[in-house]
Amino acid sequence: MTQQAHPISWFLGSSLTAAALAIGVIGISLTLTGTGYADDGHELNRAIPQNAEYTAECGSCHMAYPANLLPADKWRAITANLENHFGDNASLDPQVTARIEEYLVQHAAQNGKVMKNSTPLLAGAGPQKITEQAFFIHEHDEIPRRIVQDNPKVGSFSQCSNCHNLAEKGIFDEDTVNIPGFGRWND
Description:
Layout: H1 7-33, H2 52-58, H3 72-80, H4 94-106, H5 134-140, E1 178-179, E2 183-184
Antiparallel strand pairs: 1-2
């Protein structure tokens, strides 16, 4: 003989099951799309569009940094001084430079904000290097030097893609960090 569940018990059980499923679906979707980098003028938690010319030209010497890591004025300053690009001559044909600058400015951090709730970078103020920006230092301040700079498989903090598996797509979610020789990094 089967005993029927009390209507209140059935309702509470069904509600809890539905809530658990909803939370699971939301959690999975956030995990798959989350980047932490949000104020780039595009839908939150989505990688920025890629640019083949930028990747080919700039990525031939270093990682082609996602455009939303700096505000437009910083990118303009960098592309205006490629003959002295942090100590190297990275000069390009003026038309190529103009196209790359257009891409970087179009996808740059909006209002000087790089990350959700980050302190805005002031126009014209502060360092040009991404690795010297306050948001970058804040995100990497707990990582010991031996794991990155003294690690021959990484070399420096400027080589984002050596540890962040999806860095070149603009995704820096903590879940994508795998430091060579050390494994996953959990903050």
